[in-house]
Give the backbone structure.
Amino acid sequence: MPIASTTGHGSAPGKVILLGEHAVVYGRTAVAVALDRHVRVNIVSAVSCDEAKTAPRRDCGEGSTWESAPFPVTLFAPIESEPSPELQRLRKALACAAGYLRLDPSPLALSVDTDLPMAVGLGSSAALSVALVRALAAVAAFELDDTSVCNAALEVEKLFHGYPSGIDNTVATFGGMLAFKRGQPHRQLNAACALPLVVAVGRLPRQTQAGVLNLRGRWQREPDRYEGWFDEIDWLAGTAEGAIANGHLGKLGGLMNSNHRLLQQLGVSTPELDSMVDLARAHGALGAKLTGGGGGGAVICLCPDSRDELIRAFAAAGWNAFTTDLHPALRGEHAGNLPAPSRDYRDLRA
Ligand code: MEV
């Protein structure tokens, strides 16, 4: 298929899973919300753009990887650059998405910008996948509906995660707040109010692929025990839908706490994540839990009254944190036009 345009842009938001990660891989329901932070991809058709061939490579420095990149980060992948590991992954992702859309990736160069913390369970790889597909579609002048974008992005996600349930690329594509169950159409949820969260980022990156694979091994050895825990998580997620619809934040917080306990039992939390959750509860959070793959990554804390105090407590203990108000109205690409978040966690670094 020929390339129709010289440039294409795509963006997609990160996400938090409020309840139900890991169990969602086993057919249970999870509830997730788009964040007001994004990954943006620009694609240049280098056939007609000499700049793309000669532009200096801007990346995150020697020895760093895409996964560990600080943010905001701009990766520029001109055709003739030396392939570092993160650029190799980006190129693989580009080739995969282009292949899915039957496009020739060879004349294309891309850059990526993001204000989303990477590799901490906030959906950065899915946001990258969706933004990439959208940018490619723009370059090729394809009219892709959101379902096609979501399906293409799932193929790219498999490069990053091996066995994704599909929840991350679904939130990155459609935005808003949704309930997701594998093999069924997702349901957009309404909330009585915005959910006042603090997101705190641990020192270790999340380990989604390893976490999912190791959990699978434990589940195969003791299926009844793990199925029981997945059912409990499913119940928590279903009950949370009602709490969100009615604005019962205290109840929602309790459900998040119970979900974290079950994630500990599944073996996907870490001592660091547990300490962060304890700190959040001691500083007024109604509920706190790890979010995403675990094994590292981030925690979310539902905290209507004392967010500044909690942010300061995280900073004093050496953890970066930021506030966000999750709202069902934050939709996919359009959320990119919203004002910047009120507090930027880079400001809180020592
Ligand atoms: C990762 O954000 C969520 C997991 O449930 C994996 C998946 O659903 O693909 C851990």
About this structure: The longest helix spans residues 223-246. Residues 47-80, 331-350 have pLDDT under 50 and may be disordered. The domain at 190-347 is CATH 3.30.70.890 (Alpha-Beta Plaits). The pocket of (R)-mevalonate is lined by residues 17, 21-22, 24-25, 121, 161, 164-165, 167-168, 208, 212, 292-293 (CB under 6 Å).
